[in-house]
Amino acid sequence: MLLSACGSAADRGPVNVAIMGEDGSLFEEGVRLSSAAQHIRATTNEGLVALDPSGQVIPAIAERWIVTDDGLSYIFRLRNSNWPDGEPITAGGVRMLLEDAIRQLDGTSLGLDLAKVTEVRAMTGRVVELRLSGPMPDFLRLLAQPELGFVNRGSGAGPMVLSRDEETRMARLSALPPQERGLPAREDWEDMSRGLTVRAFTGEVAVEAFSSGDVDLLMGGTIADFPLAQLGPLSRGTVQVDPAQGIFGLIIRSDEGVLSSPARREALAMAIDRAELIQPFGLGGWQPETWIVPQALFSPLQYAENRWSDLTVEERRNVARRRIAEWRAGADEDPVLSVGLPQGPGSDLLFEQLSSAWQAVGVTAVRAGLGEGAQIELRDRLARYSSPRWFLNQFNCTLDLGLCSPGADALVRDSLELRDPAAKQALLAEAHAELMAAEVFIPLGVPVRWSLVRGAVNGYQANQWGLHPLFPLSQPTT
Fold first, then answer.
1. Alpha-carbon torsion 427, 428, 430, 434, what sign?
2. Tell me: the pLDDT tens digits for 338-388?
3. Is 114 in contact with 103 (CB distance < 8 Å)?
4. pTM of the model
5. Reduced to 3 states, what is the DSSP secondary structure of residue 37?
């Protein structure tokens, strides 16, 4: 999944970064952020912890922490520094900001992920404690999400400061002095640090900016625009594909007509040859998926890696064909399904593959855009942490995204207070079984996230979370 080439960025001057997204998406606010806005938020509004280029958790406003033996208490010691207006960063202030962020996230999937937080306490001037209803090994990674970065009186605590170019909709980022980040002062820090310019571009415009040398690093590509990366002059850069985790498939938004039966919704999933689906993209190493929660996230394993491992693709299609034919015999309409996909050449290829697979079992697919009321719609999300609960939360009924399972949601809620890992895994596996039986989603495989990286860019590293912090791009490698 890696195509290498050579190229160089300027040794001096800013590192020019582009992130795939609509014009203006860099400056989105609130709790539902685009990829571009997430990267800006993470670099200007630190939370308690952050992620490094490899996706590992590192200190941010909290300089260190301990976790109690029972896994129910996380105690953070804050660094000795100030907010941009000079006000000291205190435990009381951080507690209020964190509680406010959690309240704002209510009603989102990230809010569901934070459901184990039962209390935030300011213990002393610089010590904050978060208490959980049950152990959560990936809790620190959850706290590192950009949406949990702190905004105090309109500003964050870095590690970079933003100036906005209204005319070009460009973000200019410069590193804060080390002493303002709670670190020892360093006289040569300005000579060692480079500024960044960040813009949001769509598809062909983004790849052309990289090809022409106007951009040193292009991030945030998805499968919808992946063919564009293959058309660019790769002799001047590198295509890197993240080993991503998450969900990539089709959410069912209607239970009418041919979709009224779980068995027929399963038939649509059975008809897809996932190896054939990805073949036109030339993505070696892509992992197909037939379950909502990947098999490897349960220990012990709860099911086979492939949902229909005892059937060939043609045998699956024969089953699907019979189910569709039985419905058609008693219906007064043809099985026609609208499929919502984003714009882009990758979506064109994806639709062709889906349409061909479903035509083979007697179903006609018609193309629609995202948000245009399609019966089936692409759902493409990166995981925030490695747990079955993240995957199950993506289909919670409160999110109102499509068909759902109240029974599965209830089992996930019941798991929040369990302290025995085996019992918790068993309950989440039961929730997964309920969700799969409801046939609310057609899994296809892992999400695709790609970047174009010029050879002299430092501080970038492909990782499974698809978040690439901007601050390290400004720093020397030694």
1. positive
2. 999 999 999 999 999 999 999 999 999 999 999 999 999 999 999 999 999
3. no
4. 0.93
5. helix
